[in-house]
Amino acid sequence: MKNHITLKQKIVEILAYVLMWASIVIGIIWSAKLPKEVATHFDAAGNADGYGSPYSFLFLPIIMLISCGISSLVLHFMPPDLWSMPVKVKPEHAVRVYRDVVWMMVGMEFCFGVFTLYSTITAYMQKMDGMLAATFIFLAVLFGIIIWCIVACVRHNR
C-alpha cells in the first residue's frame, strides 16, 4: 500500500536531502579553504574550547544523512503495518493514520536537514554564539512535530 505517501510528503523529503547534501558539499569546499586547525567545539557562550581539523565538521552532515536514509528505507520499503504506531490502527482509518506518521517522519527529516545546514555553515564561519538558541529551537520544533503527529493519529483513528 503506497497510497499513504503523498506528493507533498515526497517533496518535503527530497528537500531534506537537498539540505543535507548541501551541508556536505559546503563542508568539503570550505574544509579545503580553512587552516589545518580550527575551533571544533564551543561552550554555551559561543567561546571556542576545542580544536581540530575542519574536516571534522563533516561528521554531523554524514551522520544525519545516514540516519535519515535509514528512516527513508523504513518509510518506503517497510510495510506500514510493521511500523511502531502511537495507536492501534483501525483498518478503516489506516491510510489517514499512516499519512500522519509519514508527515512526522518527513517533517523530522526536514528539521534535521535545516539544522544540519545551519550547523555546518556556522561551524565553518566559526561563529557559534547563536548555536545554543538554534539547538533549543530545533528541539522544540522536533518535539512539536512528534506531538502533532501523535494527536493527529489519535484523532484520525477514532
From TrEMBL:
InterPro entries: DUF1648 (IPR012867). Pfam families: DUF1648. Keywords: Membrane, Transmembrane, Transmembrane helix. Residues 19-65 form the DUF1648 domain. The chain crosses the membrane at residues 12-32, 57-80, 101-125, 131-154. It comes from the Bacteria. This is DUF1648 domain-containing protein. It comes from Wujia chipingensis.
